[in-house]
């Protein structure tokens, strides 16, 4: 089992920045890929960014050039640095880990005001 705890969400004005953190605990040796997804009201959950255990990254087109995913293996933590935020980035952001199973965090709200 893997437990994921997110932090760092909040309210920010358009053009501002936030950094999300996701701390993993438990069977972390089984994790291959970690990532961030988001779900806006009335919409399906969508991929934001992923990072593999080897450091390869993948981004949704809508966030390329604005968001950066990174990890700190010593802290078992994945980060999502979000810059130049837009109102359409408003959503609940979920951390995800994929390995021996599929694991989700509880989500953290990000609200971008215009």
Structural category: mainly beta
Order of helices and strands: EEEEEEEEEEE
The total count of helices amounts to 0
Strand content: over 45%
Tell me roughly what share of residues is in helical segments: under 10%
Shape: globular
Roughly what is the average pLDDT, rounded to an integer? 95
- Detail the poorly predicted runs: none
Number of strands: 11
Largest sheet: 7 strands, mixed
Radius of gyration: 13 Å
What are its keywords?
single chain, mainly beta, 7-stranded mixed beta sheet, 11 strands, 57% strand, 114 residues, 4-stranded antiparallel beta sheet
Can you describe what's shown?
The chain is mostly beta strands and 114 residues long. Helices cover 0% and strands 57% of the residues. The chain is built from no helices and eleven strands. The chain has strands spanning 2-7, 10-13, 18-26, 33-39, 46-52, 57-59, 67-72, 77-82, 91-98, 102-104, 108-113. The strands form two sheets. Strands 2, 4, 5, 6, 9, 10 and 11 form a seven-stranded mixed beta sheet that branches. The chain has a four-stranded antiparallel beta sheet with strand order 1-3-8-7, with no helix packed on it. A hairpin with a 6-residue loop joins strand 4 and strand 5. 31% of the residues are buried. The model has no long low-confidence stretch (mean pLDDT 95).
């Amino acid at each position: 089992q893997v437990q994921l705890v997110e932090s760092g969400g909040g309210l920010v004005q358009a053009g501002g920045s936030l950094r999300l953190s996701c701390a993993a605990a438990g069977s972390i040796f089984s994790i291959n890929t970690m990532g961030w997804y988001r779900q806006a009201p009335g919409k399906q959950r969508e991929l934001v960014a992923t990072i593999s255990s080897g450091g390869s990254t993948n981004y949704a087109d809508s966030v390329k050039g604005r968001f950066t995913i990174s990890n700190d293996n010593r802290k078992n933590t994945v980060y999502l640095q979000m810059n130049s935020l837009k109102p359409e980035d408003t959503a609940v952001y979920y951390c995800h880990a994929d390995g021996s199973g599929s694991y989700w965090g509880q989500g953290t709200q990000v609200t971008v005001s215009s």
